[in-house]
Amino acid sequence: MYRHPTVNHMSSKARRVVKALFTFYLSEPECLPLHWRAHTNGPGTVQTAHVVSDFIAGMTDRFALEEYRRIFEV
C-alpha cells in the first residue's frame, strides 16, 4: 500500500509521542491525574501498565501533544 511521506512522518511522530508518554507514566505513575493514579499499584507493574494504556487511549491528539510538550519540552 502506498503511503505519502507526510502521512508516514505524522504516523511516526504519533508513535514516538505515545511510546514516550507510556514509558513516562509507567515509570512515574505518581504523575498521573489523581483519579487514574488511585488505580495503579506502583511503577512498572502490569496493573499500572493497563491504567496508563487506558489513560493514553482516552487522550485526544491535541491533549497527547500538549502533555508531551509539558513533560518533555521544559
Oligomer: single chain
- Helical segment tally? 4
Strand tally: 0
Radius of gyration: 14 Å
Helix content: 55-70%
Characterize the main sheet. none
Tell me the structural class: mainly alpha
Strand content: under 5%
| Overall pLDDT level | 93
Regions with little confidence, pLDDT below 50 for 5+ residues: none
Q: Whole-Å distance between the termini?
A: 38 Å
Instruction: Give me the strand/helix succession.
Output: HHHH
Q: Tell me the overall shape.
A: elongated
Give structural attributes.
74 residues; elongated; mainly alpha; 4 helices
Explain this structure.
- Helix 1 (5-27) packs across helix 4.
- With 74 residues, this protein is mainly α.
- It contains 4 helices and no strands.
- It starts with a helix and ends with a helix.
Summary?
The chain is an all-alpha fold. 69% of the residues lie in helices and 0% in strands.
Helix-strand layout with pairing:
Blueprint: H1 5-27, H2 34-37, H3 46-57, H4 61-72
